[in-house]
């Protein structure tokens, strides 16, 4: 299904390094949504970039990884109060974990089993919901 990519507020990337999901613990500040929760790379749109460009740029800024666009195998968009959000999934070898460098946002990063993220009490709920959908998708089942 082709979805409109012109109007959206941001994008997230469920980035798997080997079998694990790369997650970022958000800063613990009252002025941001979901403080001190486990998040995924991604964020708000800059200018007229595409949803995928947004997710890949934010991933580079937040964890220092330049994810090749052809490694993104799943995408969906869904409405949120601030506008439409895109959610992507990509898989890279576990060895990419040695290249992760936390950017200016977040307290720490870690690799987490994806099902643990879905059930984690400090996972951002709507990202956990989208990840759960991906974990049940044919695209994910072909990866495992």
Automatic annotation (TrEMBL):
UniProt xrefs under CDD domains: NUDIX_Hydrolase
GO MF: hydrolase activity
Keywords: Hydrolase
Organism of origin: Ruegeria aquimaris
Spans through the membrane: none
KW DNA repair (keyword) present: no
Superkingdom per UniProt: Bacteria
Name used for this protein in its record: NUDIX hydrolase
SUPFAM superfamilies tied to this protein: Nudix (SSF55811)
UniProt xrefs under InterPro entries: NUDIX_hydrolase-like_dom_sf, NUDIX_hydrolase_CS, NUDIX_hydrolase_dom
Domain (Nudix hydrolase): residue spans on this chain: 6-135
Cofactor needs: Mg(2+)
């Amino acid at each position: 299904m082709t979805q409109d990519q012109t109007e959206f507020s941001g994008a997230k990337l469920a980035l798997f390094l080997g079998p694990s999901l790369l997650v970022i613990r958000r800063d613990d500040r009252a002025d941001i949504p979901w403080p001190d929760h486990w998040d995924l790379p991604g964020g708000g749109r800059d200018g007229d970039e595409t949803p995928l460009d947004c997710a890949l740029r934010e991933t580079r800024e937040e964890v220092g990884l330049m994810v090749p666009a052809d490694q993104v195998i799943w995408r969906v968009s869904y409405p949120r109060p601030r506008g439409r959000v895109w959610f992507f999934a990509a898989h890279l070898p576990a060895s990419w974990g040695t290249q992760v460098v936390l950017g200016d946002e977040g307290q720490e990063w870690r690799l987490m089993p994806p099902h643990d993220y879905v059930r984690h009490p400090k996972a951002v709920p709507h990202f956990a919901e989208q990840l759960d959908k991906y974990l049940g998708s044919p695209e994910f089942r072909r990866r495992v």
